[in-house]
Amino acid sequence: MSTFTVKAFAAESTTADLKEMNIERRDTTPNDVEIDILYCGVCHSDLHTARNDWGGTMYPAVPGHEIVGRITKVGSDVSKFKVGDLAGVGCIVDSCGHCDSCKQDLEQYCLNGFTGTYNGKDKHLGGHTFGGYSQKVVVDADHVLKVPENLDLAAVAPLLCAGITTWSPLKHWNVGPGSKVAVVGLGGLGHMAIKLAKGLGAEVTLFSRTPGKTDDAKQLGADHVVISTDDTQMDSVKGKFDVIIDTVPYVHDVNPYVTTLNISGTLVLVGYLGGLEPILNTVPMILGRKSVAGSVIGGIAETQEMLDFCGEHNIVSEIEMINMQDINEAYERMLKSDVRYRFVIDMKSL
Ligand code: NAP
Ligand code: ZN
What we know:
Layout: E1 3-10, E2 19-26, E3 32-41, H1 44-50, E4 67-74, E5 86-89, E6 92-94, H2 100-103, E7 115-116, E8 136-140, H3 153-156, H4 162-172, E9 180-184, H5 188-199, E10 203-208, H6 214-220, E11 224-227, H7 231-235, E12 241-246, H8 255-258, E13 261-269, H9 283-288, E14 291-294, H10 300-313, E15 319-323, H11 327-335, E16 342-346
Parallel strand pairs: 9-10, 9-12, 10-11, 12-13, 13-14, 15-16
Antiparallel strand pairs: 1-2, 3-4, 3-8, 3-16, 4-5, 6-7
Helix pairs in contact: 4-5, 4-10
The chain binds NADP nicotinamide-adenine-dinucleotide phosphate (NAP) and zinc ion.
GO molecular function, one term: alcohol dehydrogenase (NADP+) activity
Cofactor: Zn(2+)
Domain Enoyl reductase (ER): 13-345
């Protein structure tokens, strides 16, 4: 298959800084579009992948799954886009299209495994997929989103992962006017969860370890902030929430949050992957019909629904723009929870 070369930023091992390298992109096939990447958000999953926190990273790793750009080529069978259109690419660049999940627009749960935008199995070129820390990407048009024209494009990029990852559980657990929602952790996902829950009409509380984020949280739309290390504040919200979106990336005690759920409430883990410590206490779950659940990103149709909602309600991410060359420093700051609230790479810098 014919290819062309573009510049990208890649990690070559678990411990290596990301640095510039050339990668190959396929020439557009009939159902593909070629996208000139304008902006790419920096998700904590990029860092987990570059550093192999979850195991299974294939190197060189080119992260980035919050991509906004302009279409520069369309394949002969593509009718959804034309050259010059804005386009978004999130975490999924391909899925089987025929399993039970795909038939229900749940590509994120594709029973044959969706193809991740990075570190996925590249069906076209072999090897693994390379993400958005690059000049261009070629993607199957059915997995490309339309981007509302009225929004700030750099600030739209994080919607493609942080936005949909929090939107999908909010919708699945029927959040709307009158719902009481809490969000754990004010980072990329957390700040989008606040904005989207608020946009859906919920009363929103932030749980944070960081007292210095209280004013920001209120400006983002949180009605209340609870400092999770303060027992008195935690006691004051016992039995309150219908839905909690927990975005914390590392192992942490979820038991104190379960007690803040209302009867039949659900705590949805979207951040941490792995075994819980200390052990999850089932007593409040059984005696209060409470659930602890998980959720991964969202489907393509649902991502489009979220982008359209954001277009109508003028919702975008709060961003700090960086150059591609600043990515290693950005990762260090992300590890210190020092991001307000999403880094976005200006791809002109590459
Ligand atoms: P982020 O910007 O780094 O935000 C995480 C926030 O969690 C921090 O700002 C901090 O908030 C809190 N936090 C960090 N370390 C903590 C710790 N040890 N204990 C308690 N709280 C801690 O990260 P993100 O990009 O939002 O991603 C969050 C997680 O979601 C990552 O693990 C990422 O891989 C995962 N993710 C999952 C999906 C999915 O589909 N399920 C999609 C995207 C990302 P405070 O300062 O307010 O406490
Ligand atoms: Zn992500």
